[in-house]
Automatic annotation (TrEMBL):
Cofactor note: Binds 2 Zn(2+) ions per monomer.
Compartment annotation: Cytoplasm
UniProtKB keywords: Chaperone, Cytoplasm, DNA replication, Metal-binding, Repeat, Stress response, Zinc, Zinc-finger
Assigned protein family: Belongs to the DnaJ family.
Function comment: Participates actively in the response to hyperosmotic and heat shock by preventing the aggregation of stress-denatured proteins and by disaggregating proteins, also in an autonomous, DnaK-independent fashion. Unfolded proteins bind initially to DnaJ; upon interaction with the DnaJ-bound protein, DnaK hydrolyzes its bound ATP, resulting in the formation of a stable complex. GrpE releases ADP from DnaK; ATP binding to DnaK triggers the release of the substrate protein, thus completing the reaction cycle.
Comment, domains: The J domain is necessary and sufficient to stimulate DnaK ATPase activity. Zinc center 1 plays an important role in the autonomous, DnaK-independent chaperone activity of DnaJ. Zinc center 2 is essential for interaction with DnaK and for DnaJ activity.
Taxonomic source organism: Dietzia natronolimnaea
GO cellular component, one term: cytoplasm
Stated name of the protein: Chaperone protein DnaJ
Binding site for Zn(2+) 2: C199, C202, C221, C224
Positions annotated as zinc finger (CR-type): 169-247
Biased segments, Gly residues type: 133-143
Principal place of residence: cytoplasm
Molecular function GO labels: ATP binding; heat shock protein binding; unfolded protein binding; zinc ion binding
Length: 397
């Protein structure tokens, strides 16, 4: 495939998706077109076979996030005039709107005296599309970077836990409906009793190459769609993809101390890859419900303890709840409202260590229905003792 062919081929249109299509939309479009136009389902139909090859080529580029980025950037550069004189003349120079420049600069800088080329430039942009010619060698299938079947997409889901479940840790079952390995062919894509064969065109590399001047051009193998293998007898349940959509139950082990909004990664539990390629990952975002008693500050467990005014003045022993039982907290005589008492090691256990229990004292006011005589007696006793609630207050007269 020449440079101009790559630019002029609209892979998005080939798969019938927009340029802003998500990876999932591209995957579904490819799977449907590949299934509808598979040669085994359309024997003798040259148009369907050609369409099958074209959608395989399109998917091998825009179905791969890295290659899709290169493809989009390269087309954007050409459309904006970045490569004005597209094909390099025999002298190895390109013509652009800004003048001529040496092709060595385009692919990462001129070679040094020892023949070692630099890095950077547009070499990252072109990626594996171009390979330096070796002595003018003829195009071959065995050269170039071997392609692997497309891996599965990552999956995002959410999980709601109570405060105690999140603090103590919990194993929770979640149910997902997503692309999973086909149970009939176990992900191979081939009918049970058969197996995929190495592509005779690319010899399993997934790419073919041809030379043009000093450069070799690598392109996805059109016979196998860049997978490196061919299936003569596809699985009837997955049409040769090795993947089917089904519901499954997954055990999620939530670590102790997980916080609201934190993500848990389960490697290999995402969508299944094409024809046995590695599955994606599953990311579970945890939502932690509010608790009527507890709150937290990192690994510290927070509790607000209602106390009476006499308990603050005289001191008291009060039972306080924790995540794993109750503890007795001593309220020192002469304490004040809002004072924090700390109990070491009774907070939330995490890998970094267990936090503390922090108890905030809150004075509880008497109920409005309390007998007037009792309130009057209480007030008289305070005054008789010489207590003035506004003593020392800056607003006192």
């Amino acid at each position: 495939m020449s440079q101009r062919e790559w630019v002029e081929k609209d892979y998005y249109a080939e798969l019938g998706v927009s340029k802003n299509a998500t990876a999932d939309e591209i995957r579904k479009a490819y799977r449907k077109l590949a299934s509808d136009n598979h040669p085994d389902k359309n024997p003798g139909n040259a148009a369907a076979e050609e369409k099958f090859k074209r959608v395989g080529e399109a998917n091998s580029v825009i179905g791969d996030p890295a290659k899709r980025k290169e493809y989009d950037e390269f087309r954007a550069q050409v459309s904006s005039g970045g490569f004005g004189g597209f094909a390099p003349p025999g002298g190895g120079r390109f013509t652009t709107s800004g003048g001529d420049f040496d092709i060595g600069d385009l692919f990462g800088g001129a070679a040094g005296a020892g023949g070692a080329g630099g890095s950077g430039g547009f070499s990252d942009l072109f990626g594996g599309l171009f390979t330096q010619g070796r002595g003018g060698g003829a195009p071959g299938a065995g050269r170039g970077r071997a392609q692997r079947p497309q891996g599965g997409q990552d999956v995002e889901t959410s999980l709601t836990l109570s405060f105690r479940e999140a603090a103590l840790g919990e194993t929770v079952q979640i149910r997902l409906s997503s692309a999973s390995p086909c149970l009939t062919c176990h992900g191979s894509g081939a009918r049970p009793g058969t197996s995929p064969k190495v592509c005779s065109t690319c010899h399993g590399a997934g790419v073919t190459q041809r030379s043009q001047g000093a450069f070799g051009f690598a392109e996805p193998c059109t016979d196998c769609g860049g997978t490196g293998s061919k299936i003569d007898d596809p699985c009837p349940d997955c049409a040769g993809s090795g993947v089917t959509d089904r519901a499954r139950t997954i055990n999620v082990k939530v670590p102790a101390g997980v916080q609201d909004g934190q993500r848990i990664r389960l490697s290999g539990q995402g969508e299944a890859g094409f024809r046995g390629a590695p599955s994606g990952d599953l990311y579970v975002t945890v939502t932690v419900s509010k608790d009527p008693v507890f709150d937290r500050d990192g690994a510290d467990l927070l509790v607000e303890l209602p106390v009476s005014y006499p308990e603050l003045v005289r001191g008291a022993q009060v039972s306080v709840p924790t995540l794993t039982g109750r503890v007795t907290v001593k309220v020192p005589a002469g304490s004040r409202d809002g004072q924090i008492l700390r109990v070491r090691g009774r907070g939330i256990a995490r890998k970094s260590g267990t936090g503390d229990l922090k108890v905030t004292l809150r004075v509880a006011t008497p109920p409005a229905g309390m007998a007037e005589a009792e309130l009057a007696a209480y007030d008289e006793a305070l005054r008789a003792a010489g207590f003035d609630p506004r003593s020392g207050w800056a607003g006192s007269a």
